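All the exercises in this workshop are built on plain-text protein records. A record pairs a protein's sequence with a compact description of its fold. Read left to right, the backbone structure tokens trace the chain's path through space. Once this layout is familiar, the rest of the handout is easier to follow. Here is such a record, shown just as it appears in the course material:
>
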Amino acid sequence: MYVKAADASLKLAWDLNVLTLDGKHWWSARVDALTGEILDVNDWIVSCNFEDTTHLNHIPKNVNTSFKLFDNTLFSSMVDGSQYRVYALPTESPNYGSRTLVTEPTDTMASPFGWHDDDGSAGADYTTTQGNNVIVQEDVDGDNGTTGVQTEGGLSLNFDFPIDLNRQPQVSQDAALTNLFYVNNTVHDIMYYYGFNADTGGFQNNHYDVTSTVGTGDPVLADGLDGSSLNNANFGTPPDGFSPRMQMFLWASANSNTLTINGGSLDGDYIGIPANFGGELTTIPITADLALSIDDNTGDSTDVYDACDTIINSSDLTNKIAIINRGTCEFGDKLLAVENAGAIAAIVITDDRPIGTMSEGANGASVTIPGIMISRADGDAIIEAINNGETLNASLTLPFRIDGSYDNGIIIHEYAHGISNRLTGGANDANCLLACTERDEEGRCNPETYTEQMGEGWSDWFGLMLTMTPTDAGTDGRGIGTFALEQPANDGGIRPYRYSTDRGINPLTYNDTNDTDRISAPHGVGSVWCTMLWDLTWAYIDKYGFDTDLYNGTGGNNKVMQIVMDGMKLQPCQPGFIDGRDAILAADRALTGGKDQCLIWDVFAARGLGVNADQQSNILRTDQIEGFDTPNPDDPSLANCSTFSATDYNSKAYKIYPNPASTTLTIKAEKTLGDVTIYLLDVNGRKVLTKSATLINEVELNTSSLKSGLYILSP
């Protein structure tokens, strides 16, 4: 409509009427269609104060107010036209579905000025993968710098880029960084609704109009195609006010290896990890004979093959690929030594440690030849063959890589480390979730000092929660990282067992945290905790149903998300499993008065974290005692436990069809409602049909004997 303004001009406006939820006001308002400013407003409800003898309050009130129903700056951000072609949540990875083009996915409560703003004014401040919540760039050099390339969407914020998963990741860099940007922002917006926000250490550059005592200026710095490592991802969480860093590395394909031996007794492909310094491998092979590097052992080293002392067989290394043991000197010194001796590439054989990325040390910057690291077993076989007089010809090639930035479960897992670290002990304490209490000079954890810390478990669990779909079942087996490992969606992933409520698929109990041979730390220990949280999730879903709305939903998945988030805020610094369990119980008491205490106890006790379990030292992972008992039924904490009751029935809990019915009425449960008694009442309240049933899926009522009329279904 048009509204006459004070200056007699006409303004295009929306005519709205809004009845408030409390019923106290029924606003009739005209809102400027261009600016969102309220032009005039009236309350249709007359408020009567019977103690006002003048009855002046009987007349409708014209309200003069300065607030805007639609803030024009927020309105602008909602229609910024941004679009992103991504693996949209809940799609976990390319294993689970295709990319889609999502338009303006920003949540205007969590990110009120859009994903590309950080000054709090209308309009995007950046046209790249940068904004208030996260700054995404490539870090192919692995230097954690600030000059990495960001993906450019242009003034239209159009982040729609092609992808080719069959070529090296760099070919699809824009698509990967777009997906990384989308997932980080989406997780930020969802977690806002569960209490990870400006007041609790949420990751944002600008808190906008939120008055908060916690730090600003800490968006996530997310590096894609990070070249500093391989087959992993990580997340560093400093105290509030300092940006965390997410590093998404590439993963080595099992179908493409770095080292190929061309013929002879060792003919075949071998896995190797390139150094993060020196010359770069390419898809064009470096092919030459292999030669052992031999030194004079004049220094501290006692290994003639480690290139830590003066090399004495330079003529053998000229134009060859040098074979070197790991030894004790720096990698940069080794590679520089064999390069100066004439080698065109180098293969370093690790010791008893796993293969990993080699760092340059003091002199690695001078190295120009490429180098890789291989396993002890493969290296010993090569040394033996050469010492037996065999000539081995080999090729070094840049192996095919898989980009972890397309595995949303991994991205969410890493982001969740920031959540658990900021919420446990408070946003300003970054040291409340230590996985190891003692390390050696090279930073490796002394095995006896691993803790029973659950951080990896929370991170796995968040990844599962945000990628759930309505067709999932608790008994399904969910693996972590299947795409990065080139596994089918239903394969094992990177954990000892897939996550499932089915004990045949996942048998883990609290006692398994003590098993140092079979269950690693911290990831294996964390998987035990995630197993318990996953059981808890499905217990909540069985009771309250599943809601696809991750922001404002009311399903069991939403309720358990809130209870776990609040539990992290309530638990002590350096919690053990018992501390984590008790914090979740405390969160339920605070939120619902203890409505789900019995459910929570049943779930934890079934996995050995019952009332008689004992974590003993919270910083030792090998002293846990499991117990399967639940509290005594007359325990005061269980007084408010509830099961599904008539007051819990709503339209989301069940469906009734056909309605009207003639001979058969079907009741279909959207969640497990357990044993129920169903009544049909006539209009006078008399029971005309009664049926007891276990309402798991569908129950049919035979209505053929009833007269035509109106009946009321009552649980």
The mean pLDDT is 87. The longest strand covers residues 220-230. The chain is about 20% helix and 20% strand. The radius of gyration is 31 Å.
